[in-house]
């Protein structure tokens, strides 16, 4: 659907509009980052903004965002007024745009004069992960939740501000339900104010150039994206049907098992909608909180969430970096969902707070099925979100919650190693040590790369974090993380990365590992907890990695001397130089031990633990 005839769009104005949209989006995010209060928003930057037109189409593409559909569903455009701010976090009434209750979303309509009256012409939206919205545990992510009612306060779309006046009663209800009421109130105020300012800025664009001209530019921006993805990206996928699956490993309630997510990808370049992503075969709804409500608004959110994976098919990495993901990708993709009652089609009130286990895995499943279709021209696997935290009382007796979203290594690519310690949310980062130690009764004793965590390959997977935190007062540790048994898979001869691991009192008398899903692991004052995040999978045969690159990895402390020998067949002398003759001999021995029947994907040893002993499945082997 278009707003206007795009043939009327002035190409110069299209560039002006595109640049203005990007600038406004960045301005909104900068304002939120500088005026919010909670560590998760202000310091970790776990939020994002988006701009949509009046047809609810996402115009900007630097990051994914929530949806406008639920707001317009409940509040028709002609009922909106300048200065209104809409709010929601209800997972089941968000049309798939909100995944769990701590993600709070504010939406502001943009107005311009049309035929002598003010009309809604666009929307500014922001949503992010907040410290606490109530529920069974601090942080509103109870790992053993069996219903959404345990996860916090659910708010369907409401009018939080009316013509510029905040709804104090609604704000009182929300802050009363939060363990961190002051930071929640400050964050909401920052987000509402930033979006209102963004709406004024965007309104100026309409007033300057006229509604019809700006809307024609919107259409041109989206039509251009559609054409670019059709011509440059989808053309790289051979017509055919391809199937692959991957798994979450636990749901916090039942024993660890393979929670299956499957994609059947059907490519038919002769059709107007050339790409079908079929989720049939995805496993049943989990008892615990790893479900994701994906089957709303025709999968609109998931289309834009998954589309960045397609960019890896661009001709060059530089071209890939130029491609945004906006609503222009939506007309190219059809999504087919299984019946209600699966991990992607849960039935209310199924819990969802750890839905990252599913939506992050779906990125990997799409990458895997595309790797099968293209002979490996996709990155290996990554797992770049997990929530860890410490809570207790500080030296003044006040409650605190230190919540952090630590990244991991990305997968090796057909042209380069993976990146270290990345996060899927743009601009997100770990909490600065100075801030952590200044605000909480904690000491960060080490923050670096987890050696040998990246999957071996011709192109090595990126490394995860290794972080050591000492608690200075009795406290509790929490974790919402996957990939502690299963690992990030390697592709085309590359090996899996190292899994996630939490260890209390490492090297001490009380040393023990903590389950990756934990709400309240007790820590006595003086105890150290060590967090090692996942490494990305490797790409290509590690025995083909040049010796000098392995030696460089050793000098950078990304690979150990033992890892160089075991994973890459490189023998290192005490001088730090490689024994080339011994290396050649060892590599020949390692190659000779192969059967020639190795699968296209390497899942690591954890898969056998949960599969009943199988090292791989039928989909991991390329068809003969």
Automatic annotation (TrEMBL):
It comes from the Bacteria. PANTHER family: 5-OXOPROLINASE RELATED, HYPOTHETICAL 5-OXOPROLINASE (EUROFUNG)-RELATED. This is Hydantoinase B/oxoprolinase family protein. The lineage of its organism: Bacteria, Bacillati, Actinomycetota, Actinomycetes, Geodermatophilales. It holds the Pfam family Hydantoinase_B. Transmembrane segments: none annotated. Residues 10-542 form the Hydantoinase B/oxoprolinase domain.
